[in-house]
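Example 3.2
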Amino acid sequence: MLRGRLGSAIVKEFRQFVRDPVLLFLVLWLYTAEIVLCAFALTFDLDDEAVAVLDLDHSRASRELADRFERSEPFRVVARLASDREVRRALDRGDVRLAVVIPAGYAERLTQDAEAPVQLVLDGTNSMTGRTILGQARGLLAHASEDAVGRRGMGAGIVPRVENRLRVWYNPDLRFVYFVVISMLAIGAYMVGVIHPAASIVKEKESGTIEQLIVSPLRPLELVLAKTLPTFAIGLLAFGPALLIARAFGVPFRGDPLTFLVLTAAFLISAIATGVLIASLVRTLQQALLVSFFVLFPVTFLSGTMTPIESMPPAVELLSRLSPLRYYVDGMSGVFLKGVGLEVLWRPLAWMLALGAGLLATSAVVFRRRLV
């Protein structure tokens, strides 16, 4: 049982936390419902993508190629067009994002040693989805070309080929939902870790009770601990239902639970330290929320959850080293999907601890100067 001035302050903060149903609902939402929504909505995996086919050859070979798109899992042929004008109209209306144009003479070229071109007309308004569609369509056409070569009797004994045997580790089916669940779990924890301590401390400023706390026997460090320990404890406990949701989506957990707990604790320390620093710089709750979101968005963008860090400019990639989310997502992927331990993940752990210690030291100095 907690005793003394620090223990009494911590118990008081825990009581305030659990007596706020709106706050408890928001924490539960970020750790559960938001992950579910994003896991269903945020995906780049193709499933029954609408495709139109313009067959100008009208041969058995062209029909087989169209049927290949129809039978494939990523695509679904929704229209058989008759002219280039209909292709443009279908793309303009947004009925399809890919049109496959099979030119006249396609079957004849397949029987010869000449190339048999097929045109892919792609809607590139969404570049990310467009790249995925294009990659899947090119792979399908490559398989069609290999089958055509085999039917002509030009197998591996006559035409030299390099056989590509692909083996994908950690996520064999390349399911994007795994990355979405892990990323949203980390982002939700970071939002709670930053916003709640910032709002809790600033609320004391606005209500005028911060002066009473300052003149109380509590030291500044004890005041900060009392305000942040409930967030830390609730943040760890909230991972329970979040892990159940991750399991419901089939995300494997191959690592050690203790490694996951250590990484999560270090991450929450860095997130809470950010919230305390924000609280020491602002005076009102509105300012605290605005500054929190001002910090959250760049930290999220620089974490690699939106775009690969390797594709960022060198200066931005260097700046991303200040994002604790970057290291936590790496650590979570290592624990969940790779099953590695701290002997591999010690580097992201060290970065999170260093960022947390630096932020806590800075916030302690600023907090003392502004409030004491």
